[in-house]
Amino acid sequence: MRTDTPQTIYRKDYTPPTYQVETVELGFDLDPDRTIVASRLVMVSNPESVGEGIELHGVNLQLVSLRMNGRTLYEGDYDISGGILRIPAAPDRVTLEIETLTSPVKNTTLSGLYVSNGNFFTQCEAEGFRSITYFPDRPDVMAKFTVMLRADKNRYPVLLSNGNLVEEGDLDDGRHFAKWEDPFKKPSYLFALVAAKLVCQEENFRLKDGRDALLQVWVEDGNLDKTDYAMQSLKNSIRWDEERFGLELDLDRFMIVAVSDFNMGAMENKGLNIFNTKFVLANPRVATDVDYAGIEAVVGHEYFHNWTGNRVTCRDWFQLSLKEGLTVFRDQEFSADMIGTDSGRAVTRIEQVRTLRQAQFPEDAGPMAHPVRPDSFVEINNFYTVTVYEKGAEVVRMYQTLLGRDGFRKGMDLYFERHDEQAVECDDFRAAMADANGRDLAQFERWYSQAGTPVVTASSRYDANAGAFALTLSQSCPATPGQPDKLPFHIPVAVGLLGADGKDIELTVDGKKAGATAVLELTEPSQTFQFTGVKQAPIPSILRDFSAPIVLDYPYTDEQLLHLFSHDSDPVNRWEAGQRLAMERLLAMTAAAGSGGQLALDDTFIDAMRKILVDESLDPAFRENALLLPSESMVAEQMDMVNPQAIHLARQSMRKAIGSTLRKEFHAQYEANQTPGDYSPDAISAGKRGLKNLALAYLSAAPDDAINMLAQGQFDRAGNMTDRVAALVSLIQSAAPGAADALERFYAEFDNEALVVDKWFAIQAAAPGADVAAVRALMKHPAFTLKNPNRARSLIFNFCNGNPAQFHAPDGSGYAFWAEQVKALDALNPQVASRLARSMDRWRRYAPALQAQMKNALEKVAGAGKLSNDVNEVVSKALT
Ligand code: ARG
Ligand code: ZN
């Protein structure tokens, strides 16, 4: 909760810490109501510091005692204000002994030390440690930690912290203790403890250097049948990092702990990763293919942080993308390599592009737009964003595109050689990439400092006599808050040229042979690239593999797009051509729907879809993606004045037209892509299920009794959660007679599985018929609670963000509901509340009647008393 007026913190104001911490010994007497934390810090003044005195952060702490070099300090020796405890006069080398009191059970923020299902957990990134004890809680203070945990043995049989277990035993009064030592120095945000009743799956795993590491996955009793995939993913991650980057596990023990109350996906605490249950627990009965893929990605992500984040960490939180962008890139590459095939890799890339467009481009164009390395923030928790993470990963990917895989690896090696066990900046990473490859990457810095999505406008000219094709690329970047003008970026644009036969033309660019795909480097506002030896007018395939996070503007004709959709050897651009064809039509149909016109879809487009659908030479997963229409919110992003109901109508009728025209083909694919036998989450099987269930969804868009029976039959006989959920969604989407009954049975069968109950709420929140009244009714269900973030997200977020036609109801009921929930959540958990607050980011683009009501709802929240910094920053930026 806010105590003072919110302050903006600026990157330019960085100053080094006045003291470093050499060692920290922590003692915890764990009790839900009254936990005593005793801390002993050995601190030395920092020669690089310009300031003086000791500064420790602390919030919501009760200070019991404070001693410096054995002497008790009293008020006057120190002062506490604005969350900082200052000791103005201190020797160069001191030992501080601090005792504080906290009440974990009262902590509903899920930051710091808190209780979930009766167990203790911590979440310290970014600034949670300061609510556990007084400490210089900033990432450039790295210390060696020793941790003593004491707790009741019956209630908390498992006591875990970072590093190695060095001692454990019994105490009086039924209590016991465990002492943990982390051999590596680390910033406080990587501290963690768990005191809980849990069970584990464990295994010894042989590392590349011959050492054995103990791997553990800890879960609540009853969930040991759901830990195999997380364990397998952990082993795959360890192997992959050894092979791809030569990076080994540096500990003897690596633990993953699952907790059901968690704000984010997971946390990379040294040696003790704490995970949202959603990214650990899976078996075929309860988890979908998407869940399995999420577990692999997040387990990889947190494991990879051990090097990119923990061994080399961030100097300050403005550098967050240094570890997050890089680690997302690493987990993306890991997931792609786990599939192993080129086409599988392409599908993962398509999914990344979709996320970027769906979530990051809107952020970059909205009131919260910020550079990958922000210049200021009010609340750092608001900057764990798709820009820092996903756009940050695109920026890292561009190094690899520019330098090649080997060059990128050289840069990584140099980065670790220079900065192991340091807290550094994004610029240090860029310098390592440049120096290792002898490249000038000065201009590339703008990807870190300038917000906004660049637009590259392309035009071309073919000279048949000279056999020359000239491609002109011009770049611009829209203004963003605080950045009216932008300088040109260094943009790698991968380009191929297709002949009339659909084949790639061998390229010669500016006199150099370049194979089928040339990576053009656009650095000026406008540049022309000359392709020679081009014997026929080609169709350019621009931005292959989505080589940069930009919007490409090229005046493609329908005919050219159809050609690319049928032939492009680059699967990402092949998919992209289909998306462009679909988007044009969605926009036209939306315009028609808005003015009460006729919603017609041309046969040419449906034929193109048919060709892809039945092309057995293509992976099912690719075909599924190619047939998936841009979402309603993506269509909204293309419009100057958004009419959510018209978009919904247009997209539904497009689905219906495709579904009914291709009914025969969808039926055939439905049958051909069955996956009989035991469930396996591998990419081939998941791809088949994906295409089969996409076929079912299209068929259900134009339902009749036979199709309803097909969905009903799949629901009744499903052998895995992927098929069961797909069938349930189809029944609900088509308002089939069996829908309500299926929902009821689904709940009855899985009411003991929290993650499945989340799905049950989510499906209903996104149903076409779910209005605010229906959502309010669901909130009264005994299984609903605002306190559990997964549950709140499943119902409330899925409604506000995933059901635009209902959320934007003309009567404003959705907005009033949103304001109410933001306020209610904020009183419990500001981090979750401020994510929900972001649903209103794009309010200025809606039709005037909606816009006025959205603004009104924003003002209501902004005017509410006792708002957290988190929500306050989001709503006040939205209103600026
Ligand atoms: N570092 C974590 C991850 O990306 C996320 C931590 C988010 N914490 C927060 N308070 N927003 O894996
Ligand atoms: Zn991360």
Overview of this structure, please?
By secondary structure, this protein is α+β, with helices and mostly antiparallel strands. Helix content is 41%, strand content 21%. It is built from 26 helices and 34 strands. Strands 2, 3, 5, 6, 9, 12, 14, 15 and 16 form a nine-stranded mixed sheet that branches. α1 links the parallel β19 and β20 (253-259). It is globular. The model has no long low-confidence stretch (mean pLDDT 98). Zinc ion binds next to α2 and α3.
Fill in the keyword field for this structure:
21% strand, 880 residues, nine-stranded mixed β-sheet, five-stranded mixed β-sheet, binds zinc ion, alpha+beta
Q: Considering DSSP H and I runs of 4 or more, what fraction of the residues is helical?
A: 40-55%
Catalogue the ligands.
arginine, zinc ion
The SS-based structural class is alpha+beta
Q: Estimate the global geometry from the Cα principal axes.
A: globular
Low-confidence stretches: none
Helix and strand topology:
Layout: E1 9-10, E2 19-29, E3 35-45, E4 54-57, E5 62-68, E6 71-72, E7 79-81, E8 84-87, E9 93-102, E10 112-116, E11 119-123, E12 142-152, E13 158-161, E14 164-170, E15 175-181, E16 186-187, E17 193-196, E18 199-206, E19 212-219, H1 228-245, E20 253-259, E21 266-267, E22 272-276, H2 289-305, E23 313-314, H3 320-339, H4 342-364, E24 376-377, H5 386-419, E25 423-424, H6 426-437, H7 446-449, E26 455-463, E27 468-476, E28 491-498, E29 507-509, E30 512-515, E31 518-522, E32 526-531, E33 539-542, E34 551-553, H8 558-567, H9 571-594, H10 603-614, H11 620-627, H12 632-637, H13 644-661, H14 663-672, H15 683-701, H16 705-717, H17 721-733, H18 739-750, H19 754-765, H20 772-779, H21 789-802, H22 804-807, H23 813-828, H24 830-837, H25 848-863, H26 869-879
Parallel strand pairs: 2-12, 19-20, 20-22, 23-25, 26-34
Antiparallel strand pairs: 1-24, 2-3, 3-9, 4-8, 5-6, 5-9, 7-8, 10-11, 11-17, 12-15, 12-16, 13-17, 14-15, 18-19, 21-22, 26-27, 27-32, 28-31, 28-33, 29-30
Helix pairs in contact: 1-2, 2-3, 3-4, 3-5, 4-5, 5-6, 8-9, 9-11, 9-13, 11-15, 13-15, 14-15, 15-17, 16-17, 18-19, 19-21, 23-24, 23-25, 24-26, 25-26
This protein binds arginine (ARG) and zinc ion.
